[in-house]
Amino acid sequence: MDHKVITHWKGNSQFESDNPSGKTLLIDTSEEDGGHNSGLRPKAMMLSALAGCSGLDVVSILKKMKVKITDFRMDTYGELTEEHPKTYHTVSVEYHFYGTDLSEDKIKKAVDLSIEKYCGVMEMFKKFAKVNTSIHYHNN
């Protein structure tokens, strides 16, 4: 499957970009860098794509395993190089699961399957950055 995304300049540093789903988003930069701070930043969107890709895998796998959670979030951090072009050299993804009597073994298996087998964005990140992951269980 191929994807096509059209990104259209809206003036100053603002762009509108579509998605194969038909949804759009705004891309912009900070005011100090000439933008209006009205949209998402490109490099940070990469971190969102990483978390979204892995998160979709994890919830799908947990559903198939019939694992109950009350909440789930991922905190994703990227460390940039000092020199231009600034790229992520290290990325950390923290998986936070909330619930009562969490099935830690099954949750770990779901996360590992995403990291090692299913998440294509994770695989792309591994080609240019060191990727660290951790799982945090918050039992109610």
Description:
- The chain is of the alpha+beta class.
- It has two domains: 1-40, no CATH class; 42-139, GMP Synthetase, Chain A, domain 3, CATH 3.30.300.20.
- 32% of the residues lie in helices and 33% in strands.
- The protein is built from three helices and six strands, in the order βββαββααβ.
- It has helices at 42-64, 104-118, 120-126, and strands at 7-11, 14-18, 24-27, 71-80, 88-99, 130-139.
- The chain has a three-stranded antiparallel sheet with strand order 1-2-3, with no helix packed on it. It has a three-stranded mixed sheet with strand order 4-5-6, with helices on one face.
- A hairpin with a 5-residue loop joins β2 and β3.
- The longest helix has 23 residues, at 42-64.
- It is globular, with a radius of gyration of 17 Å.
- The termini are far apart.
- It holds the Pfam family OsmC.
- It comes from Gelidibacter sediminis.
- This is Putative redox protein.
- Residues 11-22 have a biased composition (Polar residues).
Which CATH class of the largest domain is shown?
A: Alpha Beta
Give me the Rg, rounded.
17 Å
Major beta-sheet overview: 3 strands, antiparallel
State the helical fraction: 25-40%
Share of β-strand residues = 25-35%
Principal-axes geometry comes out as globular
